[in-house]
Amino acid sequence: MEDCKSVIPMLEGEENLIAAVQHIAKALETNKNLTSDARKMLADLGTQLSSMTRVSENRDEGLSDIEERLNVVQDKVMNWEVDQSMIWDCGPEEAYEYVKAVGEARKLAESLESLCLSKDSEENELLRRAHDVLQTAMARLEEEFCHILVQNRQPFEPEHVSFRSSEEEVVDEGSIVSFGDDSVEDVLQRDSISRGSEEYIIDLVHPDVIPDLRCIANLMFDSNYDRECSQAFISVRKDALDDCLFILEVEKLSIEDVLRMEWNTLNSKIKRWIRAMKIFVRVYLASEKWLCDQIFGELKSVSSVCLAEASKVSMLQLLNFGEAIAIGPHQPEKLFRILDMYEVLADLIPDIDVLYTNEIGSYVKTECQDVLRRLGDCVKATFLEFENAVASNISTNPFAGGGIHHLTRYVMNYIRTLTDYGETLNVLLRDQDKEDPISFSPDMSPITEEDNTSESSSCCFSPMALHFRSLTSILECNLDDKSKLYRDDSLRHLFLMNNIHYMAEKVKVSELRNILGDEWIRKHNRKFQQHAMNYERATWSSILSFLKEEGIYNPGSNSISKTLLKERLQSFYLAFEDVYKSQTGWLIPDSQLREDLRISTALKVIQAYRTFVGRHVNHISDKYIKYSADDIENYLLDLFEGSPRSLHNCNRK
């Protein structure tokens, strides 16, 4: 209705104009003598009419030229729609001609858009045709863009990316600690790839086609088809990134899948995740960013959006695995792998911050920080669970032979391995201690005045040192409880001597020395030495009492009773044989400690025996002397081998 109203004044104006021209024509017929002013006005009117005619003619010629050019462009574009081959596969000349044609179509559309066109005008019809041609061309360019990206993908070979690792054997052969298939022997080297180093940028797409991709992208963006171009790139590169994870052996697993896994399987997948995470972020994503910049370099915001959108799903797949590990059971054997995951992710955070700079990327960065926090919480909870497991480890039977208990080996090798993560643990445990300050319970182990002095300066120790001290105290308390299962006090002290000596030696020869300190070592050296002395007293004091002078004289005289002397020797031999039979089955695993205790024992026993026999050699027949001093000494060398023997029916001859 509004259109009709606008047309009425135009019609009325044209009718009035015609009426005015007719009136002028009649006036000229009747009036042959015109004034100069009238002649001038008529001349100006003629000039104006002539100019209007030329403009109309030029406009017709312009439209004709545009239509002709559009026909050429349309033919070129539509010919390729019939042809099934890809334009860029047909050579650079064909590609150049097509790009030139599309550029011409874009310019024609822009020229027509600049005119004030009526709805049903010829120009508007040409504009519609130009848009149709341009739309067809853009769809073809999108197809060509994807084809070039896919066909020119470079093979990704992660085995050619070297992550040099310093593999160390961190658990001794005698330890029963098992932290997976290889017992913590593949410690990751930190900063194995230099951040931002160009040598780790690889060509994900053949470099020869980058100019073609950039040309297509610029043309589509200039034609306002930026969204279609970006989506095409993102779609293709999403698939490429997904293939990368497949090559890196990263499976698509749900949290439930991870939680159901057996530890050996999970351990293997964690190791793959650690390797994949480093390669994916520092090599593949860094190269992906370089590719985005090469193609969309003049459009920085577009480049960052494409990178974020293309890689988001793959990154979340990796992070989802980390989250599953973090919320899983806090089992002590998992702690080292969780620490590896935490350290790798923490080390990659700066790289991730550089890669993701836009709003979409901020979501990925936030997820990374959340998973890192959860892994840190898992580390703290797992370490505390380990402390609880040590404290609650209960034995119902004494440990055979009095050797080094499995728990002692486990704990000492466990904390020795943890020293490799000292910096990380100190940060995490410091946070933990702020929430729940650590305290040393007096019932953990006997506290001496010297200990009190040490404890008073506990503020000088790192959080890890404080927790390790607490843990060793818990272990000693547990070992003391286990020692009470022995009926023989000698074996009880031998057991404590072995285990505390093992603890002291583990600290002395490892990084634990710098954490627990030399005073800790001296304290525990004194402890195991005290248990060695207690063993000697419990074993030999009663036996050596048979070799004392008291009680071997006849009543009321100074003469020696041969009967009593004989009984004393027989009692000594019986007791010695009992000790030999039982204590050859006892075990001191450390050869130096075993030798030291044998020497100390031999010095006391041989001296007492040789003195007793030598002093009374004239009062007793040789047939009652069952063993020589050398025999006794040799038999003492058989003790603590863990293989029971008997001296029955043996004699020195």
Radius of gyration: 47 Å
Q: What overall form do the CA principal axes indicate? A: rod-shaped
Q: Into which percent range does the helicity of residues fall?
A: 55-70%
What's the total helix number?
Answer: 21
CATH fold name of the largest domain: Monooxygenase
User: What profile does the largest beta sheet have?
Assistant: none
Q: State the total count of DSSP E strands.
A: 0
CATH C-level name of the largest domain: Mainly Alpha
CATH architecture annotation of the largest domain: Up-down Bundle
Distance between the termini: 138 Å
CATH superfamily of the largest domain: Exocyst complex component Exo70
Proportion of residues in extended strands: under 5%
Mean pLDDT: 82
Unreliable runs? 1-11, 51-61, 162-199, 439-456, 649-653
Order of helices and strands: HHHHHHHHHHHHHHHHHHHHH
Structural class: mainly alpha
Number of domains: 4
